[in-house]
Every structure is written in structure tokens, then in C-alpha cells.
Amino acid sequence: MEKLIRNIISFAALLLIVFTVGCSTNSDSGTGTLEVKLHDAPVAFDEVNIFVERIEINKEDSEEGWIVVSEPNQSYNILELVNGEFEVLGITDLETGFYQQFRLIVSRDNNSVVIDGETHDLFIPSGAQTGVKLNINAEIEEDIRYVLLLDFDAKRSVVEAGQAAPLSFLLKPVIRATNEAITGNISGTVTPVDAQPAVYAIVGNDTLSTTFADEVTGEFKLIGLEEGTYTVSVEPQEGDYAEETIDGVEVLVGETTELDATIELTSGTE
After folding, report:
1. Which of 51, 78, 115, 172 is deepest in the core (most CB within 10 A)?
2. Pair 193, 214: CB distance under 8 Å
3. Burial of residue 201, with CB atoms counted within 10 A of its CB: 0-12 exposed, 13-18 middle, 19 or more buried
4. Which tens digit of pLDDT belongs to each residue from 105-126?
């Protein structure tokens, strides 16, 4: 009898060990945090209003396994998101690992553009159901916050559909996604402010960040730039001013490179 009791106790202990190890294995992966920020490459409109229904992320390169990050169900005037201003679209905890795809679900009917004080509907020709997909290959690490920057290029995203009145516009979202942890910024000041200067960070033939200088102070910030050497180009939108360029601007990860001197635009007739 004593032998039987000892065997039963030993078996129960074995089951407890197996159960404990199994539970530990399931929790080994841990979780990290994903934060999604939206900012804009501007265009000379009064407003560009985008209604974001939800944002999702996926580990697989397929239509299966999408995870909802957040459901803002909110309209954003993306032209307000310049010079370092962001809108946080969502924050969530995710299992650790690599996530290959991200998508932004934009409303089909609640988007608009305002030009010279007149509001026009922005129509999405397709993609309202499947969303705007981006390949990101984001690594979520345990107890680490991964910040995904979405640069919504309004100038390339809003397309005039025809010349006949009334004007109509299509929304074909062009978005660049970057990991904030591997980027830096460029800041500076442009005068005169009445030139309404647009400022660009350029590598070769590629424009990688755009903003308008502040209409009061002339200050600007180009954000979300990967480490490297850039040309800063300043193009006046008003008045008879010449363009200016600054070559060889170095950007380092996690830092803001401040241009030493104010960029002074001169009259094109001088």
C-alpha cells in the first residue's frame, strides 16, 4: 500500500512539473508596445481632412492574421501635422516578433479638401475595405516601445479628377513609414515669412521630408530622417524670391541638426 501511495505522489508531482513548464513556455515570448504617429508632407491647400476608421498590423505576408491596433473613427486635418507636430493614432501591446505589414483603413465617404475656402469631397476609388498597406518589417521587443512614423504625403495623395466644374478630387494615399528610433531631424529658420517657404530634405533625386516654415516665426523642422547627408532646399511659394539650398547637412540618429544661420531668401530680381 505504501508503495502505491508513493507512486501516486510521484506521478502527481510529475504532472505538476509538466504543467508548470508548459505554462512557462507559453509566456516566454512576452510583449512589447507599438505606438503609431501620423504627420504630413504639406501642400498649398487650406485643409486636407482624412477620416481614419482603424489601423491594423500583421506578422504574415498574407490576408490572414490582421490585428487591430486601434479604431480612432476620427477625422484629422493632416495639414496641421507639420514642423514636428504629430497625431497619435494608436498605442497597443503586441507579442514580440517581426511584423511585416501595416494598413490604414480610411473611410470611403468622409474625406474632404478645402481650397480657397471651398470644401470638396475626396473620393477613394478603391481600397476602403483592404486599406492602405505598407511593408514595415517592424521588430517588437519585450518591454520596448516601437514608434512607427507615418508620413502622409498630401501633395501626392490628393489628385484632381477632372477640369470640369464642379471640381472633384480623388484620395490616393501615399504614405512613408519609418521607425522613429533610427531617425533624426533637421531644424532651422527662414526669412522673410511672407515668402511662405516650403522646405525639403533631399537625397539625390528623392525628397524624404517636407514642411512649410512657420508663418509667424519662420522656424521649421524636417522629421523622420534616417542617418545620412542631406540637401535642404527652400522654395518660396509667394513673392519674387529665389530658391536657396544648403548642401552637406548631416543627420544623426536620435538628434536634431540645427542649421547655424538663418536662411535668408533674396529677391529673384537682385
Report:
1. 78
2. yes
3. buried
4. 999 889 999 999 999 999 887 6
